[in-house]
Amino acid sequence: MQYIKRHLEDKITSLSKSYSAILLTGPRQSGKTTMLRMLAEKENIGREYVTLDDLSLRDMAKNDPAMFFQLHKPPILIDEVQYAPELFTYIKIHIDKYHNPGDFWMTGSQIFRLMQGVQESLAGRAALLHMSPLSQREIDGKAAVPFSTNFDTLLSESKNVTPATVPEIYERLWRGSMPGIVSGLFPDRDIYYSSYISTYIERDVRELSGSIDALKFNRFITAMAARTAQMLNYSAIAEDADIDIQTAKAWTNILEALGIIFLLHPYSNNVLKRTVKTPKIYFYDTGLVCYLTKWSSPVVAESGAMNGALLENYAVSEIMKSYQSSGVVPYLYYYRDRDAKEIDLIIEGDGKLCPIEIKKTSLPDKRITKTFGLLDKSPLKVGTSAVLCMAEHLGAFDNDNLIVPIWMI
């Protein structure tokens, strides 16, 4: 199996020089443990590895944390730490006493349960990072660059990134970005995703919500995938899955907490009063979406009814990963008002809003950029906009509106 270098490696190495604890969250099988164990080997300081997937270790961590740390002393890598939030208080005491940078590396695959314990015990003491499945830049061995509409950055990146054709883009999004598939460790993609849902996702949902009906859960996650890049409609999803709305909401929260999906919230402020309040659904891994919605090959995914939604999900998730891989908090939104006028994505930063439209075309029409004027009333300045599309080269309609190939993200 070929190891693929992760962008967060350098961030973790540098943060370990100043923070006593680093907590890396993200979905199961996204490569958190593999990366940290590889880094631990490199640093060569005898960092011990313990996993709380081991039930006897978990039992000790929960019921006798003091004994756990007598037996397993820092520097230590604790895997799946969310199973024993009782450890956090002892980690806090140790940090306050010794102040040793890099003593605790931890991973967790249930984000919201972790955050509570971290906020209570380790606020200001732990560096929090999120690892998604592989980004396209990691797969291609390119440097991490948080996506922006800055023309100079894009021009320089256009020379570093290899162009991709439309079929190649759909091949990427159909295959997905899980390290087990990309590295070739699991050549049968369908069996991998089938096992991933039943082994990891269902088990974690059961742990977080009590007993679940596996058939109904499968219908639910399929209904979510069928609505990727769309506004979240709990009643329609509940109807598809034959569950009540409360269960649909609870399961949605859990999928978000497990790092399977993320919600893109609408941009609004006091001036833009006509905007909708409903978030849109995106999956971190488009391969999982294609598997759940039963697109049997990249060719049918490209020609099928969901081709636009799949492309939008791919582009938005790659932009999200570009920030997370750099250890930067992303401020991403979309815009939609009650007249159904919409902007696919807005990146907020440096007092500006940069609007983005995502289109499958290779020759975008300038009229696409008209909707960007909806943000003119916003108190923030409207920055450089972009149409992300299947163009072969970086281009522009004018100084303020760029044409950016999706392969450049």
What do these coordinates show?
The protein is α/β, with parallel strands linked by helices and 409 residues long. The protein folds into two domains: 8-130, Rossmann fold (3-Layer(aba) Sandwich); 136-408, no CATH class. It is built from 17 helices and 14 strands. The protein has helices spanning 8-15, 32-43, 55-63, 65-71, 87-98, 111-121, 136-140, 151-158, 166-175, 179-182, 189-209, 214-226, 234-241, 245-257, 286-292, 298-303, 307-324; strands at residues 21-25, 48-51, 76-79, 104-108, 126-130, 261-264, 280-283, 332-336, 342-349, 352-358, 381-382, 385-389, 395-398, 401-405. The longest helix is centred in the middle third of the chain and has 21 residues, at 189-209. It starts with 7 loop residues before the first helix and ends with a strand.
Short description:
This protein is α/β, with parallel strands linked by helices and 409 residues long. The chain folds into two domains: 8-130, Rossmann fold, CATH 3.40.50.300; 136-408, no CATH class. The protein has helices at residues 8-15, 32-43, 55-63, 65-71, 87-98, 111-121, 136-140, 151-158, 166-175, 179-182, 189-209, 214-226, 234-241, 245-257, 286-292, 298-303, 307-324, and strands spanning 21-25, 48-51, 76-79, 104-108, 126-130, 261-264, 280-283, 332-336, 342-349, 352-358, 381-382, 385-389, 395-398, 401-405.
